[in-house]
Design brief:
The protein is mostly helical. It has one domain (8-164): Up-down Bundle (Ferritin), CATH 1.20.1260.10. Helices cover 68% and strands 4% of the residues. Helix 1 (8-30) runs antiparallel to helix 2, helix 1 runs antiparallel to helix 4 (91-115) and helix 4 runs antiparallel to helix 5. The longest helix has 29 residues, at 36-64.
């Protein structure tokens, strides 16, 4: 549930941690698949999250200089949720994990849209608008990947990675 009483510092820190969690989510998921198109998209999403985190940190420095972090990554996980990537053991669980990633992205977009007004810096507010749009875009990318996976025959290889198999 979206907290309503976050301070501007907590809003920006939640955003930074959200991007960190998303980076880790895509990184762990990419390590569990060997489907080239999906792997390529997950790698791109991971890069996007890293870039978002870097930009948020720059905005944080400009607004709050050396203020200590106001929340932890686990606090942010309570707000944004987590995706259980370790549960991916077959095609259906991979698709379910991707749907959970979509939900994560959509909630992030909602968070950025609803919390941007709390930021004292115009550029940071604009970046939050961009992040809201990016979250929706990332969700669309993931939806397209799910549709591309549906007709494929997938199985686990000897390393536990989801791979395409011929029938």
């Amino acid at each position: 549930m979206l907290p309503t009483n976050l301070s501007p510092l907590e809003v920006i820190d939640a955003g930074i941690h959200s991007e960190t969690l998303a980076f880790k989510m895509y990184d762990r998921l990419a390590r569990r698949v060997e489907v080239p198109t999906l792997l390529s998209r997950l790698t791109q999403l991971k890069k996007d999250e890293k870039d978002h985190r870097k930009t948020l940190r720059a905005h944080r420095r400009s607004m709050f200089t050396d203020a200590p972090m106001s929340m932890t990554e686990s606090d942010a996980a309570e707000i944004f949720g987590k995706v259980d990537v370790e549960a991916v053991v077959d095609k259906e669980s991979l698709i379910q994990a991707l749907f959970a990633c979509i939900k994560y992205e959509e909630y992030g977009a909602y968070f950025y849209d609803r919390q941007r007004h709390k930021l004292p810096n115009r550029e940071a507010r604009i970046f939050f608008e961009v992040l809201a749009s990016e979250g929706e875009f990332h969700g669309d990318i993931l939806r397209r990947q799910i549709e591309a996976l549906r007709p494929l025959h997938l199985a686990l290889d000897d390393r536990g990675r989801t791979v395409e198999v011929a029938y």
